[in-house]
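Tip: read the tokens left to right.
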């Protein structure tokens, strides 16, 4: 289904767009810091905004690495994902400490879905391996006799 998938933006354009979105989102989170910290539901919203910041930070870092190291370079759990998670948790912590907890939870869910989408688009198809080989068939016959 995604065999002939073409990216809408190049790595350089993705880097610029995700940088702009990150700066705007961080600025909005800081501008509405008092409102986001005023109610329980809004602190959850602050953590959710932090998780969106995490996804766009990961996009920013990954597109920068693709520009610097080549097209096949992929983000790893350490240091890229951990660094982006720490930065988004720091941004959420500037609002309220409960925002950090919800940011981590929402970010892990977002990371799961980013990974699933990445595997669908870029992952190699898994071929099924025939589990019954000649030697295992003989050993089964010996055990039955």
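Filled-in amino acids:
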């Amino acid at each position: 289904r995604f065999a002939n998938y073409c990216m809408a933006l190049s790595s350089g354009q993705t880097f610029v767009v995700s940088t702009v979105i990150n700066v705007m989102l961080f600025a909005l989170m800081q501008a509405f810091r008092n409102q986001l910290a005023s109610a329980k539901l809004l602190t959850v919203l602050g953590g959710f905004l932090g998780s969106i910041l995490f996804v766009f930070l990961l996009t920013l870092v990954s597109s920068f690495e693709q520009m610097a190291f080549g097209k096949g370079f992929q983000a790893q759990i350490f240091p890229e994902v951990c660094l982006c998670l720490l930065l988004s948790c720091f941004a959420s912590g500037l609002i309220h400490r409960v925002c950090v907890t919800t940011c981590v939870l929402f970010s892990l869910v977002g990371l799961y879905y980013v990974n699933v989408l990445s595997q669908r688009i870029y992952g190699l198809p898994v071929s099924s391996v025939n589990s019954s080989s000649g030697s295992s068939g003989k050993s089964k016959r010996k055990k039955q006799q």
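The radius of gyration is 22 Å. The chain has a mean pLDDT of 85.
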